[in-house]
Amino acid sequence: MWQKFLFLLTLLALSLGLTACQPRQVMAEDRLFLDLSVDFVGAVELPKTEYEGTTVGGLSGLTYDRQRDRFYAISDDRSRQAPARFYTLQLTLETTPQVTLENVTTLKNEQGNTYPENGIDPESIALSPRDTLYISSEGIPKDNIAPFIGEFNRETGQKLNELRIPKRFLPNTPIRNDNPPHGVQDNLGFEALALGITSVAEADPFRLFTAPEFSLIQDDMEHTPDTQPRLRLLHYGINPVGPPILVSETLYLLEPIPESAISHGLTELIALQREGYLLSLERSFSPLMGVTAKLFQVTSGNATDTSRIDNLKSINIVEPMGKRLLFDLNTLDIPLDNLEGMALGPYFPDGSQSLIFVSDDNFGEEQVTQFLVFRLYQ
């Protein structure tokens, strides 16, 4: 009888032990992510307007200049409405957000010439500690226009140099003798760009992160309701001396494509001050559901370097970046437009940082340039 009693006590102890372990497992997973939260502040629309001979629209990327308390917004105009350009904006956050246009700067190539029509497809923008702007272009593969990440003079808009991009991202550059189909897909190139800055000193190094909007040609696979498209996120080290160094390339998993969606992808990244942590914006559009958008926290964690993997159609041994939903923007009681840009802005009096989203109106009459303002607590 005593043996039976001891056996039952042992089972009870084991049961309690297993139950006690479960919260610790969840807490271990939680430690992979930062304790972040966001609160919605308000929204403001920029009316359709002409500014200094340009049609204002297509705002696809946003970055904040803390020294001047101004934002720079890149237009994704392929030099069709006017030469490729970025705008300087003032955005006030008190009470009701307001946005004011202050300047427009035309982009120029290394020779100092404006980009010709369909010669560039700018999508994202980020201000560096050396007071220059990094701008990504999706390129136009069908017209043999390569994607690039370039550094531009903030005042003149002239291109200074560009990063070396791996050949597997460049559709029209052979990677080996048999040259299998590869590279970014048309209109799905480098949409997201972020700088990881730990020092504002001009001579200190910083990091650059970029990723295409959707899978590379060689990584794309049959889409099912549960399939997560596979992206390659590039991580560069930018040093004051010498060329930028490609530090790593890791797998980023998109959410499954929503039913009936005709557009779906990663549209922006933000590098948080703590190294190894990012915010990502994923946006979809379908005729039935309209625009849907979600904000995620992303961490490199133990993600596998994918730079030596020819294609990502099989990921049995590949560890992706960690990702957790931070906020579903469709829970807001407002209609969303084509959200593509995102930036950290000034601090509020309570110490929280502003987080700003902007929509690309595609120069369409039925769409709007929408700014959404949030508080980010971290």
What topology does this entry show?
Elements: H1 2-30, E1 37-46, E2 50-51, E3 54-55, E4 59-65, E5 70-75, E6 85-92, E7 98-106, E8 122-127, E9 132-137, E10 148-153, E11 159-162, E12 190-196, E13 206-212, E14 230-238, E15 245-253, E16 263-271, E17 277-286, E18 290-299, E19 322-328, E20 339-347, E21 353-359, E22 369-377
Antiparallel strand pairs: 1-22, 2-3, 4-5, 5-6, 6-7, 8-9, 9-10, 10-11, 12-13, 13-14, 14-15, 16-17, 17-18, 18-19, 20-21, 21-22
Could you describe the 3D structure shown?
Helices cover 8% and strands 42% of the residues. By secondary structure, it is mainly β. It has one domain (36-377): Tachylectin-2, Chain A, CATH 2.115.10. The strands form 6 sheets. It has a 4-stranded antiparallel β-sheet with strand order 1-22-21-20, with no helix packed on it. Strands 4-5-6-7 form a 4-stranded antiparallel β-sheet, with no helix packed on it. Strands 8-9-10-11 form a 4-stranded antiparallel β-sheet, with no helix packed on it. It starts with a helix and ends with a strand. 39% of the residues are buried.
